[in-house]
Amino acid sequence: MSIATAVTWFFNALLTITWPPLHNSINAAAFALYAALNVVGFVFILLLVPETRNRTLEELDSVFKVSSRDQAMYGIRQLKWFFGRWIWGQGAYGIPVLVVGGRSGGQSGGVEGGLEFRARDRGGDGPANDGDDRDFPADKI
Fold first, then answer.
1. How many CB atoms lie within 10 A of CB 18?
2. pLDDT digits (tens, 9 = 90+) for 39-69
3. CA atoms within 13 A on the CB side of 138
4. pLDDT value, residue 28
5. Report field, pTM of the whole predicted structure over 0.90
6. Distance CA 98, CA 135 (A)
7. Domain parsing of the chain, residue ranges
8. Contact 22, 33 (CB under 8 A)
9. How far apart, in Å, are the Cα atoms of 51 and each of 6, 36, 45, 47, 90?
């Protein structure tokens, strides 16, 4: 927690130091510069940082064995799903799920590099809508 607080204060100080000269030189376009940096950070995190929420320590081993290329392709599929579902309103399609550690049953979406990528339906009141997005072969046992 102290590291997170220190990083937050560091970037607050950096923003405080850089804002006045930047605003004086390019006026309102300074907001666009900070917005562009946020977009770059968003893309970096989406494509290269794996999701670890609701994972056990044993599952994290298999999550971090996923190659960066496969992780980036999964992030692109997530972005396509988000825009299709929430921006363009194309209906409730299955959310992309990255299944690691081999093949399991269900809706197949393709196999790349030993990993199966599937889209699971999140609609209705079934068990797929319980907020837990884990889908590992061990869950089927």
1. 13
2. 999 999 999 999 888 889 988 998 899 899 9
3. 9
4. 87
5. no
6. 8
7. 1-49, 53-141
8. yes
9. 24, 24, 10, 10, 25
